[in-house]
Specification:
The chain is an alpha+beta fold. The protein contains three helices and seven strands, in the order E-E-E-H-H-H-E-E-E-E. The longest helix is centred in the middle third of the chain and has 15 residues.
Length: about 180
Amino acid sequence: MDPVDNSIYEFEAKVRHAVENKGCLSAITTGCRLKPKTPEEEDKYFLWNKDLVDDFFKGDMPEWIREDALTGSDKLQYYEMKESELEEEKEWLHLYAELALFSKWKSKLDALEHAKPFKMKKIVVRTKENAESKKKVKAENAIFYISFKTRCGRECNFIIRKTTDGKPDHFSLEVKCFM
């Protein structure tokens, strides 16, 4: 509800399950916004254009992060989030963790709810974007390597690949969970 004029707004999201990568959960969002009130406001760009995604972020999901990633020749592409930064990104990180568990427990939604809250342990972000270290988390195209514990103490590692085709409200999330 808009607090200025008490009018009601509808939220609209267009999400599809992608099947390009076997062995991981893939979802592509091509719209996420307040629903337009008039037809002329409709967005004509709901199609995902995979040709506009950087080639580095295409293909099979990567394997778990190498031991020397933060110190090796590609170290400028990586950033390990500091504990003090986790709170600012908490909602996204917890959504990513839920998607990782969902990718393994698809029909066990009760188990997913009982696994919360999560305790984030280590988050490393990899991107090719030239950004200040802590801004790599907000990169349009990034790979997140995340370790966390469930409420029951179960250790989970997963990879999230977030990509965009450059159009407003368009992004793709691919999840590979190691349990």
